[in-house]
From TrEMBL:
Residues 1-26 are annotated as: Disordered. SUPFAM superfamilies: Uracil-DNA glycosylase-like. This is SMUG1 glycosylase. Keywords: DNA damage, DNA repair, DNA-binding, Hydrolase. The keyword DNA-binding applies. GO terms for biological process: base-excision repair. It comes from the Eukaryota. InterPro entries: SMUG1, Uracil-DNA_glycosylase-like_sf. Coiled coil: none annotated. GO terms for molecular function: DNA binding; oxidized pyrimidine nucleobase lesion DNA N-glycosylase activity; single-strand selective uracil DNA N-glycosylase activity.
Length: 138
């Protein structure tokens, strides 16, 4: 799992370089690299035990829309930065965008990108990505 997400991160940055887009050292690129490093540290933690049966890592399976979001909205320094993710199953778990339910991410923020299936998915909380029609109420 770690390798596939790392490869995806590398492919996104490599593709942008080939297309002449922003350098990996711009603000968004540095932010994405820092997020990836922090995510790797979280993945290295021991697994949760009972009663936890499923753990979603949206930066692994929703890296593309997450990168699109960061590249669009993390272009210049900001005075305030909110960190976190919407804790419900229909926010960042679907889109890879912090605090972002699918409709707002897709229609209002205009974020695009493919969302893959997590390796272990709860049957009542499937990841549908940007096509998810459920709203986050939390």
């Amino acid at each position: 799992m770690e390798g596939s997400a790392a490869e995806a991160a590398g492919m996104v940055l490599k593709k942008e370089e080939e297309e002449g887009e922003e350098d990996e050292e711009d603000l968004a690129g540095r932010f994405l690299r820092l997020e990836w490093e922090q995510s790797a540290l979280l993945r290295a933690l021991p697994p949760f035990g009972d009663p936890v049966s499923h753990v979603y890592h949206p930066l692994d399976y929703a890296w593309e829309p997450h990168c699109d979001f960061v590249r669009r909205y993390c272009r210049t320094p900001k005075r305030v930065l909110f960190l976190g993710m919407n804790p419900g199953p229909f926010g960042m778990a679907q889109t890879g965008v912090p605090f972002g339910e699918a409709w707002h991410v897709r229609e209002w923020l205009r974020v695009v990108g493919g969302v893959k299936k997590p390796p272990s998915e709860h049957p009542e909380r499937p990841v549908l990505g940007l096509t998810c029609r459920r709203a986050e109420v939390s």
